[in-house]
Design a protein that fits this description.
Largest sheet: 2 strands, antiparallel
Structural class: mainly alpha
Number of helices: 8
Number of domains: 1
Helix content: over 70%
Oligomer: single chain
Radius of gyration: 18 Å
Order of helices and strands: HHHHEEHHHH
Shape: globular
Low-confidence stretches: none
Strand content: under 5%
Length: 195
């Protein structure tokens, strides 16, 4: 990824949750849901990349895709469940159904955010796929194993961060802003240092 594009992406990835918290009064769970939607987009586009590599290079890599795809999907589910457990440890009174509905139906400028945010995240994921994978020719140079290895490493790093936060929540519960800034800082640093 070019340096300018990398900085732009870092800025936009940080600005939406921060604007959400400070300007639109999102709570911590709203921001967590925003990141989970983005995480879902990464998961889906990892499988789309694998499919594109398999069809473009006409290589039979179905077994690799199946094995690594299952590991990736399981890690996604484990991380999502661990996030919910962490939120319950931080906010014991949280009602997930109510919060999810509030997130989806939150209105800003007369538009319910779910109808705006979901297509925005899907579009951003597609643009990333197109610019970083197709237009650079990476699709011709990468294997399914390389796609999922990088993705699974990211998931394991996320698991470590979530597990650390979960464990820490039994010792001390910080103000909401600390978690928000921690999430934004962690994801920003991870994206900055990844290759």
């Amino acid at each position: 990824m070019r340096v300018n594009l990398k900085y732009f992406q870092l800025l936009t990835d940080a600005i939406i949750p921060l604007l959400g918290y400070f300007l639109w009064h999102w709570n911590l769970y709203f921001i967590v849901l925003f990141y989970l939607l983005d995480y879902l987009a990464y998961e889906v586009f990892s499988h789309i990349k694998a499919n594109k590599v398999q069809t473009t290079l006409k290589r039979e890599q179905s077994i690799a895709w199946l094995k690594l795809g299952i590991v990736s999907a399981l890690l996604f589910i484990v991380n999502c469940v661990l996030v919910q457990l962490t939120m319950k440890a931080i906010v014991p009174t949280i009602d997930f159904t109510k919060e999810l509905s509030a997130f989806w139906n939150y209105k800003d400028m007369g538009i319910e955010q779910g109808y705006f945010l979901l297509p925005l995240i899907a579009f951003a994921g597609y643009q990333r796929y197109k610019m970083e994978f197709l237009m650079t020719g990476l699709v011709q140079k990468i294997s399914i194993h390389q796609i999922f290895t990088k993705h699974i490493q990211a998931q394991l790093i996320a698991f470590g961060f979530i597990a650390f936060t979960f464990g820490l929540s039994f010792l001390i519960v910080f103000p909401e802003i600390v978690y928000v800034l921690g999430i934004v800082l962690f994801t920003g640093l991870y994206q900055f240092f990844r290759k």
